[in-house]
Amino acid sequence: MVEPFRKYLLSKATFTEDELAQMEAAAVAKKLKRREYLLQQGDVSRNMAFVVSGSLRHYRTGKDAQEHIMRFAIENWWLNDAESFRTELPAKGAIDALETTHVLLFSKKNFERLKREIPTFSSLESQLAGRYLDAQANRLYTAISHSAEERYQEFITAFPDFYQRIPLHMIASYLGVSRETLSRIRKQTS
């Protein structure tokens, strides 16, 4: 399971064999079945997860018991509840598998150690964190300034791999529209 992780790392930066071995040794492999939780709401997010295969969703449940999807993650994506991971407070959301999913887990202690000991890994993590913040800002802007149709088209363009793998009701939740609205939009754009 570490070979895809190694390929991912080498596609992003130059690492020595020793650094790769150090990162691989810090990882704990885990297999999740469909609908199995990686993190339950109220638990502390103690791991950073790298998706080797499969897909995950990070979501929060509203007072009306409706799920609000914050993020999806597929192969070569990182995911955790960032606020809980950083603060070590209970997570406000949950993460579960949308299909059989294999992840590599890095405890906070190991993740921080790798960033301290491997400058290239620290630089990569900083770049990814910056891209994540940019994506969140763009998503917020899109949510408040674009129509449902425009949000859907941007989602399809930005995440063509997600569209085929993620149920439509979850895409609707991510876009902040009802399933019926998404169905209407899809019919109009077909």
Automatic annotation (TrEMBL):
Q: Where is the Cyclic nucleotide-binding domain?
A: 15-114
PROSITE patterns in UniProt: CNMP_BINDING_3
| Alphabetical list of InterPro entries matching this protein | cNMP-bd_dom (IPR000595), cNMP-bd_dom_sf (IPR018490), RmlC-like_jellyroll (IPR014710)
List the protein's name. Answer: Crp/Fnr family transcriptional regulator
Source species? Hymenobacter negativus
